Each structure stands twice: as C-alpha cells, then as structure tokens.
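Table S2 (text version). Query chain:
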Amino acid sequence: MDDARYRIGLATARNLDPEAPERLEAALKEVAPDLYRHIVEFAFGDILSRPGLDPKTREIATVSALAALGNAQPQLRFHLNAALNLGCTRAELAEILMQMAVYAGVPAALNALYLAKEVFAERDAKGLS
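Corresponding structure-token output:
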C-alpha cells in the first residue's frame, strides 16, 4: 500500500471538510471498505492535491460537473460545502449553478440550486458562512 498517497489524500480531504474522511469511511466500511481507500488515494491524493489549480478553482469545476450530471446530490452537497469552506461565496455558487442551465439544462440547474438552498440553510443553522 502507498501510504504517502493515502496521507496526502487524507490531508486534502480534511482541507475541504475536516470530518470528510471519517464520514466517508463510516458510510463505506460495511459495504465496500476498499473503495474508501481508493477514493482517498486517487480522488483526493492523486487528483485534488495536484498543484495545477488552486483548491477553490478545483471546487468550482467540481460543483459545475456534479450539477451538470444531475444525479450526484450527495457529492454535490459535499462539494458545495467544500467550496464555501475554501472561500467561494454563496453568490458565486448561485451564479455557477445558474450557468449550468445553459449547458446542462434547466432541471439540472434547478435541482442544484434547490440543494444549494438547503446547504446554505444548514450552514446558517450552524453559524457558518
């Protein structure tokens, strides 16, 4: 096992959300525990930690892609929160999601905006910006 990739992946995931690795591990441990490590190593360790883009820009790209897919609500919820944690504003996220109406269709954009509204309300309840 490549512990360096795993450690880098954990650090990257925790930068997006300090509790992310533990939540992901808990969600997968009974059904696909190996997938957890693959996600940490590949997605967070190999890709999201690359130096070519700053973390905020990576989150903008990720939010856009997940919104365009239209069927990845749990992942979109995570990445909306991560984008906010990395400095995106709510207004920026709303603009990104509205733009998806042009490229992914109005239903995908509306679904993403409805989810963003929920995320914003959850963050307000926790006192987060």
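Notes on Table S2: The radius of gyration is 15 Å. The longest helix spans residues 106-126.
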